[in-house]
């Protein structure tokens, strides 16, 4: 038979084992890991460097707030011709409490609108639509996003019988894993339905952000961003199509200082893109962009100016 001391030791060990199991369960369910953000923003640092909004010609934008909740904007783009004709856009923004409405109307009749609503501190709704005279280009999309303590989930549905779901989970202070599933049931021009699933892993700390994604349509994407100083960031990205065995690699950097910001990137498909943005005052700024395609020999550059009131 067991002595009293032996029974006490068994109870103590059992209690310690139960506490260890409970601690592991608590770490798994309600960890102190940070929220990873949306799956669609998993490569936001790289996109900030590589997705440069270049334009050709002269662009002028004027924004004015008519009240604390309502504002308008006017944008004129004078293009030398070619694929991007001259345009004019009128914009209207409305913000009140949990609601935000943004719209743009072009002289050609195209309309873009977006509505954002913070339903609860954790649940948000986003609806967007685009109306255009081009056949099969008008579309609408609705997103429901829920922000957990250390995870983020999204549900979307819209035109062309489209629906999708995504989930991103933090597994440590710096590492997160996610998956995305998108289905298109009615594509234009008689194309067959399409379903694409994507798995992703992301590592990020104060100075580094690395992302790797693999999609069921045989595409691989990877990016690496490193902040050298508070004002300098370098980035690289790789996109590979395993089916066609084609790939594109890019290198870029972003410099941000009191005099403005400069972005430049170069890719293996022989494209060089750069954008310079410089504030003139608290209410005005100027920008210059250039894009050189060595494969086609085309070069386009533009100058823009923005005024706020």
- Can you count the helices? 2
What are the low-pLDDT stretches, counting only 5+ consecutive residues below 50?
A: 15-25
Largest sheet: 19 strands, mixed, barrel
Report the end-to-end length measured between terminal Cα atoms: 88 Å
What Rg, in angstroms, do the CA atoms define?
A: 25 Å
Briefly note the structural class of the backbone: mainly beta
User: What spatial form do the alpha-carbon principal axes imply?
Assistant: globular
Helix content: 10-25%
Total beta strands: 19
Order of helices and strands: HHEEEEEEEEEEEEEEEEEEE
Q: What's the rounded overall pLDDT mean? A: 90
Strand content: over 45%
Pick out its properties.
about 300 residues, mainly beta, 19-stranded mixed barrel, 19 strands, about 10% helix
Structure in words:
The chain starts with a helix and ends with a strand. It has 309 residues and is mainly beta. It has helices at residues 4-29, 44-50; strands at 57-65, 70-78, 87-96, 99-106, 111-118, 123-131, 139-147, 151-158, 162-170, 175-184, 194-204, 208-215, 219-229, 232-241, 246-257, 260-267, 271-281, 284-293, 298-308. It has a 19-stranded mixed beta barrel. It has two helices and 19 strands. 11% of the residues lie in helices and 59% in strands. The longest helix has 26 residues, at 4-29.
């Amino acid at each position: 038979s067991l002595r009293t001391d032996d029974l006490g030791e068994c109870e103590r060990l059992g209690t310690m084992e139960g506490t260890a199991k409970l601690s592991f369960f608590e770490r798994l369910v309600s960890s102190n890991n940070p929220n990873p953000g949306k799956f669609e923003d998993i490569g936001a640092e790289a996109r900030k460097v590589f997705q440069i909004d270049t334009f050709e010609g002269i662009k002028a934008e004027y924004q004015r707030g008519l009240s604390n909740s309502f504002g308008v904007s006017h944008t004129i783009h004078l293009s030398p011709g070619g694929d991007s004709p001259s345009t004019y856009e009128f914009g209207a923004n409305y913000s009140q409490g949990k609601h935000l409405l943004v719209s743009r109307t072009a002289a050609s009749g195209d309309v873009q609108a977006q509505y954002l609503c913070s339903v609860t501190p954790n649940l948000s709704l986003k609806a967007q639509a685009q109306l255009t005279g081009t056949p099969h280009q008008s579309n609408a999309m609705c997103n429901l996003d829920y922000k957990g303590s250390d995870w983020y989930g999204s549900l979307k549905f819209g035109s062309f019988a489209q629906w999708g779901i995504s989930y991103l989970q933090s597994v440590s202070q710096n590492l997160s894993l996610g998956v995305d599933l998108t289905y298109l049931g009615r594509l234009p021009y008689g194309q067959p339905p399409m379903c694409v699933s994507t798995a992703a892993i992301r590592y990020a700390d104060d100075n580094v952000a690395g992302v790797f994604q693999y999609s069921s349509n045989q595409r691989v994407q990877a990016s690496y961003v490193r902040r050298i100083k508070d004002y300098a960031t370098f980035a690289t990205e790789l996109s590979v199509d395993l089916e066609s065995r084609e790939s594109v690699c890019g290198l870029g950097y972003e410099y941000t200082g009191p005099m403005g910001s400069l972005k430049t990137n170069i890719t293996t498909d022989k494209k060089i893109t750069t954008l310079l943005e410089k504030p003139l005052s608290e209410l005005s700024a100027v920008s210059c962009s250039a894009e050189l395609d060595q494969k086609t020999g085309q070069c386009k550059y533009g100058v823009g100016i923005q005024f706020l009131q």
